[in-house]
What does this fold into?
Amino acid sequence: MTAPVTAKSIGAVSCHVCGLLVSNRYIAEHMADCPRCDAALHSRKVNSLNRTWALLIAAAILYIPANVYPVLTLISFGRSTTNTIMGGVIELAQSGQMVIAVIVFVASVFVPIFKIAALLFLVISVQSRLKVQQRKRALLYRFTEFIGRWSMIDIFMISILIGLVKLQALATVTAGPGAIAFAAVVIITMFAAMSFDPRLIWDDEGNDNDG
Amino acid sequence: MEIDKNFSYTEALVACPECDLIHSVPKIREGEQGRCIRCGALLFVRHKNSLNRSLAFALTGLMFFILANMFPLLTFEMEGQAESNRLIDGAIAFWNAGYWELGIVVFISSVVAPLSVLLVLITLLLPMQFGRSPFSPQFQIRLLTHLKPWAMSEIFILGIFVAFVKLQDFADVSVGLSLFAFVLMVAATVMAYLTLDEGALWSRLKEIRA
Ligand SMILES: [Zn+2]
Ligand SMILES: [Zn+2]
It folds into this structure.
């Protein structure tokens, strides 16, 4: 099998902002950024795997306080209920709101774990030079990048509740420290997904004998 | 595939943003899209009147954004007392409660980024409509690329929805006028993005500058 023709193999770089194809010779001669949009040009994202690893480890550590600490407290008629992320899901399910409970469970519990696991798998598969199922891994990456932001539902929900429910003794909602850790997990995993370069999945395809 | 490698930079070829495979840019018809033959990533789309339509959607979005900030999103009533909130109140509430980090995150993702996306699109496309060059198209297009992941209005809507359901259990909640405006703002923004064809944008800029 002959090696596929990539920008890298013909000595060019594709601008990550506007997609213009610029030759390495031009970049070297002009010490240039992208001639069309002025973005800095990189053949591959800089230090992609190390950065993704570091961000994933940070996200995995923060995932623990995000789920252990309460994210909100409701005080109504002197009675106070404190919820963790999972507690909020269970409460929705118990009050018969199954559809919403499932949405929140998927966005807040499943997506963060799935995202960390998927990116770990992608990074490790690239580092171990796995050369199978590239198309499926590319799809996994695209999906992971797409779903990550949706975990912010809970943070927005909390921001609305604490802004709206402030009737002193009647009913008051306050945020808990778990919310900070949770938002940090979402944002750090978003950066992790952005740091990973999906082109690494395909690099060296067809060049079985090079190192 | 025979490829002329002797170029400084070229628009005749395009590398897949997700796998780097080189494709020659074909003449595709309006309404069609091109995908990478190796990994399936979207390479380009062609839309009829792309720039005009994108501008129209962005202006519509801005109008609804302004409306969305003028009225309450939700109103909450209990024992004769009522409280309502505006779009920006979520961020303020976090800030006042001492969670300033979350205040900033919510402010950026629900107010600053969605508004900036619309303003950047308008300041980019409106001058071009009159045959003039925007003040810095390169900077504006780069800004747009970086803003995009942080504008989370559509997720904010789901957040409102979940908050609404949670509150329904113990109080009277009603939907404010701003919620409708906000939903329409999100729809218009999504359409502005979907209709924007960056290839057409760069070639129109080139015409204007020539
Ligand atoms: Zn560029
Ligand atoms: Zn591809």
